[in-house]
Amino acid sequence: MPKTSIDIQSFVTDWVADHVRRVPGLASVPAEMDRLAAELTRDARSRGISGRELDRTMGDIDDYLTEQYSRVCAGP
User: Fold this and answer.
1) Number of structural domains the chain divides into
2) Model confidence over 44-75: pLDDT tens digits?
3) 72: Cβ–Cβ under 8 A, 6 or more apart, which residues?
4) Are 68 and 33 in contact (CB under 8 A)?
5) CB 8 within 8 Å of CB 49
6) Phi then psi for 63, rounded to 5 degrees?
C-alpha cells in the first residue's frame, strides 16, 4: 500500500525523536548528519518508504536533520 505524505512525516518525526541526540564534543556535524541520513533512509526503506518519497515529503534530508539537530542542541 502506498504511503501518504502524512504517514511519511509521522515516521520521520518519530524517528527523529528516537535517534537525534546532542553529541557533546562532536567534531563534524556534516559527518554526523550523513550517518543519521543513511540510518534514516535504511529504516525508511525497511518500512517500504523510498528515498525519493522521503525527499518529496521532507525536502533535503540532510538539511532537515541538520535543522532538527540544531533544535536538539538549543534545548528547551
Assistant:
1) 1
2) 999 999 999 999 999 999 999 999 999 998 87
3) 20, 21, 22
4) no
5) yes
6) -65, -45
